[in-house]
Amino acid sequence: QRTLQNVPVLDPGDHIFEEEMVAQRWPQAQVGFMLTGPQGWGGISIPVFHFGPFATEESERFPVAFVGVLGRRFSIKDKLAVQTVAQVHVDPTRPVRADLQAQLQLGHILGVGLALSGVESLDGQIEYTLMEGVRMGYSVGLVRFGSQGSLPEAYRNSHEITLSIRPISFSRDMDRDRVTDWEDACPRLKGEPELQGCPSQ
User: Fold this and answer.
1) Each residue of 74-127: pLDDT tens digit?
2) Looking at residue 54, what is its pLDDT?
3) Where are the domains of the chain?
């Protein structure tokens, strides 16, 4: 989770203190509630606890924080699709931030893409589905956008590992492609004739 902190910086020229925004990331756990459709989903994700120097009594004064999520999947071929996700981070302790993600996915198992984090940075992402409802991801910083008209600069010292677990689902992965979607309502499984002969979608 990206966190901003005001850090005083001493200017040796005129001995004036200035405030510099320093981006830091700390481990955090979130619980999400999503409403899914045939090709999209939406909902909210609520941070439940986090670690690091900001997990103090002072930060606990502002417990109302959430992330709004809206996703859409565009199928290209049978096992190839483009997935887009928009996130809005709302936290009384920080400015509102919007993230945009775009991934090229192979059979719901492997996803590779880019993520634009507000106006701060551009990250590369890769995600892999370990099993039904369990997905692991890794992101690395590619470009950091400067302030006051400065040129973007490369930064690869930013890393993030995510683990998504979906413990509750009201549908079943009938076609065993590691994801529950509209295809599970009428799957085509070899060796199970009673599940074949689906009508056209």
Assistant:
1) 988 878 999 999 999 888 877 888 999 999 999 878 999 999 987 788 899 999
2) 47
3) 2-183
Look-up: residue for tokens 């509750």? 168
Q: What is the mean pLDDT of residues 13-21?
A: 37
Q: Which fold has domain 2-183?
A: Porin (2.40.160)
- pTM (two decimals): 0.62
Query: HEC string of the chain?
Result: CEEEEEEEEECCCCCCEEEEEEEEECCEEEEEEEEECCCEEEEEEEEEEECCCCCCCCHHHCCCCEEEEEEEEEEEECCEEEEEEEEEEECCCCCCEEEEEEEEEECCCEEEEEEEECCCEEEEEEEEEEECCEEEEEEEEEEECCCCCCCCEECCCCEEEEEEECCCCCCCCCCCCCCCCHHHHCCCCCCCHHHCCCCCC
pLDDT tens column, 31-54: 888 887 778 889 998 877 666 554
Q: Rounded distance, CA 66 to CA 19, Å?
A: 27
Distance in angstroms (rounded) separating the CA atoms of residues 2 and 191:
48
